[in-house]
Design goal:
By secondary structure, the protein is an all-beta fold. It has no helices and 11 strands.
Length: about 110
């Protein structure tokens, strides 16, 4: 059974940094791509970043370009989201996604 487990969320002041991790298990994640999404209170879930397992190519939502970096460690089947220069509007629950599978989410709160 595929499992995705996020960690690394927390409370940080504006301008600070956090690194989220998404540990995967249950199969070999060598195909398709891993995505990060986030959902703020009262808002729809939105795309944040994507990384290909095979070639490491990435893409980002305009709102996080230049501040967030997604990476992968294939040997550990783990994907990371490095978040720098955090803003209050980045406050949300962050989820990793692979196909139809979702993690449970990790809360990120940025205080002003």
């Amino acid at each position: 059974q595929v499992q995705l487990v996020e960690s690394g969320g927390g409370l940080v002041q504006a301008g600070g940094s956090l690194r989220l991790s998404c540990a995967t298990s249950g199969r070999t994640f060598s195909t398709y791509a891993m995505r990060w999404f986030r959902q703020a209170p009262g808002k729809e879930r939105e795309f944040v970043a994507i990384i290909s397992w095979s070639d490491g190519s990435t893409d980002y939502a305009d709102s996080v370009k230049g501040r967030f970096t997604v990476s992968r460690e294939n040997a550990k089947n783990t994907v990371y989201l490095q978040m720098n220069n955090l803003k209050p509007e980045d406050t949300a629950v962050y989820y990793c996604n692979w196909g139809s599978y979702w993690g449970q989410g990790t809360q990120v709160t940025v205080s002003s």
